[in-house]
Structure formats: C-alpha cells, structure tokens
Amino acid sequence: MVPWLGHDDPFPAVERALGAASGAPGLLAASSDLLPSRLLDAYRRGIFPWYSDGQPVLWWSPDPRMILRPDEFKVSPSLRKTLKRVLRDDAWEIRVDDDFRAVMRACAQAPRHGQRGTWITADVIDAYSSLHRAGEAHSIETWFDGERVGGLYGVSLGRMFFGESMFAALTDASKIALAALVAHLRRHGVELIDCQQNTSHLASLGGREIARRAFVAHVRATVNDASIPWRFDKSVLADLVRRQPVDPAA
C-alpha cells in the first residue's frame, strides 16, 4: 500500500516504491501538500511529484531512471546547422530566468502525445516559483525576434540538474534551449541531468536509463556541492558546436 504522508512525515525509502508489476511502477507516496520544503527534500532523495488536478500529490521514484549526461548529448546534422544559425543571427537569443512562471505556463499548455490535460497546475507553478525565488529553480528560454518561442525549466541543487518540462512554439526551439543548458552544465562540471521518465524524444537526444540505486547515489554525492552560476547567453552554444561530434544516426 502506498503510504499517506502527513505534514511532518518523512518520505519512505525509495526502495519501497511500487515495482514494475504494479499498475504504477515507481509510485512511492501520496500527500495533500506541495510545500517548497518538501519539494527540496524530495529532490535530494531522488523523488519527484507527478499528478493530475483533483488528485492528491503523488510522489515517484522509478527504477530505472531516465537521465541525460551532458557529455552524451546527441547533436544531429540538422540540429548542428540550427545551432550555427542561432549563433550568427542576432534575432535569436537565449535568456535565463527572464520569466520563470511564463515558461511554466507555456509548458503546461504544450500538447503531449497520449496525454490529456497537464500536471503543471496552478499549485505546482506556485511551488516551483517559490524554489525559483530562492535560486533553486531556473528557466532557459529560446527567443526569436523578441518573442519567447521555446524553453525548459528545472531544479538546480549543487552540481545536479533535475529537468522538469519543455515547450516549443517553433521547430527545434526547445532543443536549442536544451543544447544551451547542456553546454552550460558541461562548463561547470555537472555530469547528469535527471529526465525522470523514458521518452523516445529524450532517447533521441542521448538520454538513457540507469538503475535507481546509481541515480540516487549520484544525487546524494552532488546536491550538496557549491551551486553553479546561472547567467549565460547563446554564446555558450559555441562550445557545443565546436566540440560535440555530430551524430549521423540522430
């Protein structure tokens, strides 16, 4: 049975999450609150919230866990051409934390294949915005001709980044933001991005699954490191275009 967490109850060990034979593999606990303090505690333990409006807050720690190592990010020939165009065309910008809530709202409105509605509710936006104000959540935004056309957001603790959601209003706009994030994290020695759950899109960009035990061990070893800076622009893409080998199969 999935435990119900009262206000002061700690999370159970992640090994108690439901297994693959259950109807909800990775489900660990449920609660009524989404306090920023509980959110931070969850991320530090390799746990994340995911639920629909009208449901209790559901907490997950799947095994295996989908991750993306910045050094394994795949750049297809077409994406490399796009990044080069972004670098040379002044109409393109990468902005960091220009409007965190706006990025979350755009992610909430983005269509998802096989999904109806969104888990990014008003309460979720409020909770993550609290982390953003504390410097623990960030948005990376792709702009074209003065308009936000794509982006992503996530939680940053020490030398660990937990990706949450992306959106694109123009082709490849979310990939451009992700490429900028990857390049920035590589500069600052961040070795792993949490992608939470396996999707074909993430796999095409180099994401892969690792055992939960290895994931949690990495999280515990990195979340208490010194925080990395969160100021960069599109020039960070030059490192990625120059150093990253093209993946012809991507």
TrEMBL record:
InterPro entries: Acyl_CoA_acyltransferase, Leu/Phe-tRNA_Trfase, Leu/Phe-tRNA_Trfase_C, Leu/Phe-tRNA_Trfase_N. Its EC number is 2.3.2.6. The keyword Repeat does not apply. It catalyses: L-phenylalanyl-tRNA(Phe) + an N-terminal L-alpha-aminoacyl-[protein] = an N-terminal L-phenylalanyl-L-alpha-aminoacyl-[protein] + tRNA(Phe); N-terminal L-arginyl-[protein] + L-leucyl-tRNA(Leu) = N-terminal L-leucyl-L-arginyl-[protein] + tRNA(Leu) + H(+); N-terminal L-lysyl-[protein] + L-leucyl-tRNA(Leu) = N-terminal L-leucyl-L-lysyl-[protein] + tRNA(Leu) + H(+). One of its GO terms (cellular component) is cytoplasm. One of its GO terms (molecular function) is leucyl-tRNA--protein transferase activity. It holds the Pfam family Leu_Phe_trans. The keyword Acyltransferase applies. Keywords: Acyltransferase, Cytoplasm, Transferase. It is found in: Cytoplasm. It comes from the Bacteria. One of its GO terms (biological process) is protein catabolic process. Its main location: cytoplasm. It is an enzyme of class 2 (transferase). Functions in the N-end rule pathway of protein degradation where it conjugates Leu, Phe and, less efficiently, Met from aminoacyl-tRNAs to the N-termini of proteins containing an N-terminal arginine or lysine. Belongs to the L/F-transferase family. PANTHER family: LEUCYL/PHENYLALANYL-TRNA--PROTEIN TRANSFERASE, LEUCYL_PHENYLALANYL-TRNA--PROTEIN TRANSFERASE. This is Leucyl/phenylalanyl-tRNA--protein transferase. It comes from Paraburkholderia caballeronis.
